[in-house]
Amino acid sequence: MENIARLMAHDKAGELSSLTPLSNERVAAIAARFPGISSQYLEFIEKIGVGSTTRGQYVYEPEPASKAEMHPSFQAYQSASYRTLTGRPEAVENRFPSDAVDVADGGGSWWYCLCPSRGPGVFCLDMGGPSFELECDDFFSFAAQT
Question: Tens digit of pLDDT for each residue in 10-43?
Fold first, then answer.
């Protein structure tokens, strides 16, 4: 709860005020569906919520990051014509860890993910790479900087 209070104090512009908290039951269901998911993320969505911040950052319930492969931006960046145009090599297999879940985005081709097998950090899934790299050491740090 201390971290939530710190986040709210840091949010002087009220950017998080447009988010809707999830019920204890819903958060418990998410924790059961995604074992090992960040406890900070779970606390955040229960106490602060999901939805769109006033600056257009989206925080939502987790979905498997592998769904990125169906996104139009991912398909365009990974297409043979784009690779030919840019001189990029053939796309790689197993682009993202199997336990990675996306939980936030800013509306572009970057998704922010949690990945229990890689620890408590928030990772940036860049559809243009594709790449999957550490963005922040933990969810509260991520929320404070977005």
Answer: 787 888 989 999 999 999 999 999 999 999 999 9
- DSSP annotation of 108: S
The 8-class DSSP code of residue 65 comes to G
Select from 106, 98, 145 the least CA-distant residue to 126. 106
DSSP SS3 for 115: coil
Sign, CA torsion 51/36/71/132: positive
Residues 6+ apart with CB under 8 A from 90: 83
**In 78-126, alpha helices (H):** 80-86
Distance CA 146, CA 128 (A): 21
For the chain, what is the total number of helices (H) and then of strands (E)?
A: 6, 6
Phi–psi pair at 79, nearest 5 degrees? -70, 155
- Grouping H, G, I as helix, E, B as strand and the rest as coil, residue 118 is helix
pTM score of the predicted model: 0.85
